[in-house]
Amino acid sequence: MTYDEFYRHLGKAGLTIREFADLVKMNANSVTNCRQRGDVPSHLAVMVALMGEMAEHKINFKHVLLNIEIAPKKPRGAGPGKFGGDKQENRPSDEIEC
What we know:
By secondary structure, the chain is mainly alpha-helical. The protein has helices at 3-13, 17-23, 28-32, 34-37, 42-56, 61-66, and strands at 82-83, 86-87. The chain has one domain (3-74).
């Protein structure tokens, strides 16, 4: 789905990008970054298309989503104590006391 189609479906659903991101526990910047690529990932396309259709049929999808326990997505590179994938170990020269 193109970003323009995605945005049109958001309008049908009566949502802003921030509201959509809050409902699905995403960072709003992650959604708006799709604009530069020109298209959106298929899982976002499916969600927003269904939200738009549900809104047209007067179905309160917000209530349904708010009752689902969605774990917030972790930002990239959010691993604790790691750089480049592996935990940094002390080198022998770091342990010498002066």
